[in-house]
């Protein structure tokens, strides 16, 4: 009996979506359940690409029946498939559907909610030299994870190779702009020029702490801006340096 009612509900949603199309108005799917997956294809065997919570709205892209699934547009401009029995198809204006979102035609939340990892490639300055860094991350949850840093910097005084690891915290992972904080520790290989005494030629221990922003755009493009403060420890002293960097992130 429950399955029959579910099939009838799905049929009603699809007929309603077709009627919306005939009237040349915007069709949106509103989620009726607490949470439901959005998949890469119209079948439960496809991979999950996002989760939708109750009252979330998605523009309906495909109004034809594909089993009992609807193709919907996600906030980042990509598409996925949601079960018809988990949503109610309604007609509202685009302005009403996007109310409360910050410049929805430009910005979208980074895919932190479903990601298991992140790879960021950044460039900037460290002290008086140029910096390039690769930063892979492991997300234990949308708000917490661990990040590694493999960086190289070249300045007038010499070269540094940096390898560090530490935790980070994301604030407001569902927002288009996500602040984050991190700390890390590791080793630094210093190779100074002969006429500089900034750091000795050796392997050093170092620590860093910083903060930044992940700025999400449509189509899963994420810009990363950050500032870090480093402390490099030698035998009888320490040296402090500041990093300013920017780059792009890819979520896995």
Helix content: under 10%
Give the number of domains. 2
Reported by name, the CATH topology of the largest domain is: Porin
Q: H/E order of the elements?
A: HEEEEEEEHEEEEEEEE
Radius of gyration: 24 Å
Computed structural class: mainly beta
In words, what does this structure look like?
- The structure is a single chain.
- The chain is mainly beta.
- It has two domains: about 1-95, SH3 Domains (SH3 type barrels), CATH 2.30.30.40; about 115-250, Porin, CATH 2.40.160.
- It is built from two helices and 15 strands.
- It has an eight-stranded antiparallel beta barrel. A five-stranded antiparallel β-sheet has the order 6-5-4-1-7.
- Strand 10 and strand 11 form a beta hairpin.
- The two termini are about 40 Å apart.
Spell out the key features of this protein.
single chain, mainly beta, Porin, eight-stranded antiparallel barrel, five-stranded antiparallel β-sheet, 2 helices, 15 strands, 58% strand
Question: How would you summarize this macromolecular structure in one to three sentences?
Answer:
This protein is mostly beta strands and 252 residues long. The chain contains two helices and 15 strands.
Write the layout of secondary structure elements.
Elements lengths: L1 H21 L4 E5 L3 E5 L8 E6 L3 E10 L2 E5 L5 E5 L3 E5 L2 H4 L19 E10 L2 E13 L2 E12 L2 E13 L6 E16 L10 E15 L3 E13 L4 E14 L1
Antiparallel strand pairs: 1-4, 1-7, 2-3, 4-5, 5-6, 8-9, 8-15, 9-10, 10-11, 11-12, 12-13, 13-14, 14-15
């Amino acid at each position: 009996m429950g399955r029959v009612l579910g099939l009838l509900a799905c049929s009603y949603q699809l007929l309603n979506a077709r009627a919306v199309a005939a009237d040349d108005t915007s069709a949106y799917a509103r989620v009726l359940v607490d949470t439901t997956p959005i998949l890469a294809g119209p079948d439960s065997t496809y991979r999950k690409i996002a989760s939708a919570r109750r009252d979330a709205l998605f523009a309906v892209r495909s109004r034809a029946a594909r089993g009992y699934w609807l193709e919907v547009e996600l906030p980042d401009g990509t598409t996925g498939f949601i079960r018809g029995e988990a949503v109610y198809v309604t007609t509202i204006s685009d302005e009403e559907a996007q109310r409360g979102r910050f410049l929805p035609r430009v910005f979208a939340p980074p895919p932190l909610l479903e990601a298991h990892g992140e790879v960021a490639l950044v460039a900037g300055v460290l002290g008086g030299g140029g910096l390039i860094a690769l930063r892979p991350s492991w997300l234990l949850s949308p708000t917490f994870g661990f990040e590694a840093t493999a960086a190289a910097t070249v300045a007038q005084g010499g070269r540094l190779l940096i390898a560090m690891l530490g935790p980070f915290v994301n604030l407001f992972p569902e927002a288009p702009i996500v602040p984050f904080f991190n700390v890390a520790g590791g080793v630094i290989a210093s190779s100074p020029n002969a006429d500089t005494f900034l750091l000795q030629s050796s392997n050093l221990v170092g620590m860093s702490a910083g903060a930044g922003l992940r700025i999400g755009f449509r189509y899963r493009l994420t810009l990363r801006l950050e500032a870090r403060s480093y402390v490099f420890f030698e035998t009888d002293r320490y040296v402090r340096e500041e990093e300013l960097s920017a780059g792009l992130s890819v979520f896995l």
